[in-house]
Amino acid sequence: MSWLAENFYFNPYAILPFLSGLGSFLLGTLTLAKSKDKTIRLIFFYFSASLFLWLFSYSLIYSCNNYSIALYLARFGCFSVFCACPLFYHFTLLFLKKNNELTYIKILYILLIILLPFQMSTSISFKGLYNYYFGFYGKAAPSYLIFILVFFILCMIRIAQLHFQAVQSNTLSDEKKLQSKYFFISFLIAWFAGIDFLPKFGIEIFPFGSIFALIWVSFTTYAILRHQLMDINIVIRKGVAYSFLIAILTVFYLVVVLTTEKFFQHLLGYQSFWVSLVYIVIIAITFTPLKDKIQHIVDRIIFKGTHEQIALENERLRQEIIQAEKSKVVSTLASGMAHEIKNPLTAIKTFSEHLPKNLENPEFLKKFSRIVGNEVDRIDNLVHQLLDFAKPSPLSLTNVDICALLNDTLSFLNSKLLQNKISIETSFTPQRIFIQADKTRLRQAFLNLLLNAIEAMPAGGTLNIRCLSLDSRDSQNMQGSSDQSRNTSHGNNYLTIIIADTGVGIAKKDLPHIFDPFYSNKDNGTGLGLSITQGIIQEHGGTITVDSAVGVGTTVTIIVARAS
Amino acid sequence: MSTTTTSKKILVVDDEEGIRESLKLILEEHYPLIVTDSAEQCLNCLANAKDIGLVLLDIKMPKANGLDILKEIKEKRPDLKVIIITGYKSVETATEAVRLGASGYIVKPFKTEEILTVVKKNLG
After folding, report:
1. In this complex, do A351 and B25 lie within 8 Å of one another by their Cβ atoms?
2. pLDDT above 90 covers what percent of chain A?
3. What is the chain A residue with the closest CA to B37?
4. Which stretch of DSSP H or E encloses residue B34?
5. Which positions ≥6 away from A333 have C-beta within 8 Å?
6. Could you count the other beta carbons within 10 Å of the beta carbon of residue A518?
7. Could you tell me which of A36, A41, A474, B86 has the fewest CB atoms within 10 Å of its CB?
8. Which residues in chain A have Cβ-Cβ distances shorter than 8 Å to B110?
9. Contacts of range A160-169, beta carbons closer than 8 Å, 24 or more positions apart
10. Chain A, nearest residue to B90 by Cα
11. Interface test with A, best of B15, B19, B24 (most A CBs within 10 A)
């Protein structure tokens, strides 16, 4: 202990590099703690650890009054910087996924291991020490320039690649480009850490580059841990705000320490290393919680805004989502339409092109009549469906006896039911149930659903139709496993219509899309039937849901309010 | 009917009758054809008939994605040339089709000359 007291003293200039180094190490540890199994985070941890060793060595150098020990520490600190360089390079290689260059990293690491004994025992990097006002500092040997050159060239290459990736790449996702942007900016900031090289060449300025090293590590940690959640501009603004406040906090600590140090010196009559050490420990313990508190206050006061601003921002975002959804629907409609119309147009075009040279060919003319006629009908049908879908006619509401309408629709499909050998089971309530509805459109909806059921049973099966009157409790109990949301705010009088078949069923992957326009797995479907049916039911204030299992069958459940 | 010098057949795969009849109208005069209306039939034909030299494949069919069928064709017959037919031209689909091994890309509605040129280029 007396050895420590003999060779070291408290130097306030040592606080800054010590705190910066500790901060770097803690951030690197935090990154590793979040996910140990990612190599990139491990390399980042090692990089942060090398920064810590560099900065901690320099904090000890400033506090050292023994030339030999200080020189040894300077060489060790310098070696830590040498390690930081390939670790930084390795980190960017992993980030940029340039796995083919990883071999060069191994060479760099091997060179480091070879360099270590020479670095510690010879003047290959430092030929001595300067004695500045803030403490000892390494005096660069001529060969040190080689290191600086290599360091800056490597950094420039990496920074250029990150810039390209962030700004110009057309193949990367937005997330990856944003992450590249973070790293690019943080590494640009890191350039200022290079100011620490200047005192090594006799320029007597305090090497405050350690602050930029800490900012660099902070940005990079944030990019690794939280980049998905925040915009780069917010991070930069936050980073600047935090750094500014933390710098003030650091200065505050310095002032407190210097003042009380002077006080104790006056009181005790000598400078005590142990008093200084206690201060360092207190600062180290209190710094991080205080920094977090400041961060919290900055988040709450500067960046979150008032409640009104948050509400307005939320509403703006909600409108953006609605617009985006609308655009998505329009885009789906357009591409679906393009496909549905282009097919009949192709046939009409081709047959028309060949008509002049086949005027005397009865077989061709027969085919022409059939094909072209069918395709024109198809286009016509599609236009009608689109009009129905896009701008349905106003409802003509009357009191409609639902069970009677279902029976009528079934009668209409009698021949198809017989053809497919489908047996019918119906279960209607004994009393007549009326709803306020447009009879024609409701019939269209039932027709769509019954036709779907029949087509799902080409080799026979059972079609079960039930019509139940429910109160609100029963309706809530009917919640099924499908994704569509139910409107349970119908009051106390519901009518539930269930159409169940024992057909081929719908695959699980298709279920979420069955109401999407132009989504169809049928050979001759436009993909609008269920979209239109859903639209009709919703126009009547009802809900429609579908449950299905492949090989078992499909159950469609419609809930509408009864007429009062 | 003019005879063709190639013995290789063209396999047409499209679920739409209008498209199948259109391609038959354009090509049957010049090339022997096999016409199918589903992915399943297409793969069966490829397994049984070894003298197919070119496939004209619709990209959008009800029960199968044309690109998936293309991938399967290329896995079974890497040497076989496949031309994709689509009604909706997009850079992404074209890129994906070429990446999966398609030799060409035709957009509907197509011209007779366009079909004949593409087929001649890929089949001879």
Report:
1. yes
2. 14
3. A523
4. strand B33-36
5. A517, A518
6. 20
7. A36
8. 346, 349-350
9. A161/A92, A161/A96, A162/A92, A162/A96, A162/A187, A165/A96
10. A335
11. B19
For A429-453, what is each residue's pLDDT tens digit? 777 788 888 888 888 899 889 989 9
Rg (CA), chain B: 13
A350 contacts in B (CB within 8 Å)? 22-23, 25-26, 109-110, 112
Cβ-based contacts of A341 with chain B (< 8 Å): 87
Beta bridge partner(s), residue A425: A464
Q: Give the orientation angle of helix A67-95 with respect to helix A144-167, to 10 degrees.
A: 30
DSSP string, A163-193: HHHHHT-SSS-HHHHHHHHHHHHHHHHHGGG
Task: Please state whether the predicted TM-score (pTM) of the whole model is above 0.90.
Answer: no
Distance in Å, alpha carbon of A438 to nearest chain B alpha carbon: 33
Spans in chain B with pLDDT lower than 70: 1-6, 62-63, 89, 124
Pairwise CB contact (< 8 Å): B88 & A338: yes
Contact between chains at A374 and B17 (C-beta distance less than 8 A) = yes
| Predicted pLDDT of residue A365 | 94
What number of C-beta contacts closer than 8 Å exist between A and B?
A: 68
Question: In whole angstroms, how far apart are CA A404 and each of A410, A432, A495?
Answer: 10, 8, 14
Per-residue pLDDT reduced to its tens digit, B73-83: 998 888 899 99
The H or E element that residue A409 is part of is helix A402-412
Positive or negative torsion for Cα B84, B88, B89, B91:
negative
Partner-chain contact A342 B88, CB within 8 Å = yes
Instruction: Supply B11's token pair.
Output: 């396999």
Residues forming beta bridges with residue B35, ordered by sequence position: B12
Listing DSSP states for A263-326 in one string gives HHHHHHSS--HHHHHHHHHHHHHHHHHHHHHHHHHIIIIIIS--HHHHHHHHHHHHHHHHHHHH
d(CA A219, CA A224): 9
Rounded-to-integer distance, Cα A43 and Cα A51, Å:
12
B-chain CB neighbours of A345 within 8 Å are 108-109
CB contact under 8 Å between A350 and B22, yes or no, is yes
Residue A423 C-alpha, separation from nearest chain B C-alpha, in angstroms: 27
CB-nearest to A342 from B62, B63, B108 is B108
Dump the DSSP string for B97-110. HHHHT-SEEEESSP
Write out chain A residues lying below 8 Å of B19, CB-based.
343, 346-347
Interacting residues of A370 by C-beta distance below 8 A, sequence separation 6+:
none
List the Cα angle A469/A470/A472 in 5-degree steps. Answer: 155
Q: Compare CB distances from B109 to A346, A371, A520 and report the shortest one's residue.
A: A346
Backbone φ/ψ region at A421: left (φ over 0), alpha (ψ -120 to 50), beta: left
Q: What is the pLDDT of residues A333-376, one digit of tens each?
A: 676 777 778 889 999 999 999 999 999 999 999 999 999 999 99
Provide the angle, in degrees to the nearest 10, between the axes of the packed helices B112-123 and B17-27. 70
CA A118 to each of CA A54, A76, A125, A514: distance values in angstroms, whole numbers, following the listed order: 18, 11, 9, 72
Question: What are the residues whose beta carbons fall under 8 Å from the beta carbon of B67, sequence distance 6 or more?
Answer: B59, B93, B96, B97, B100
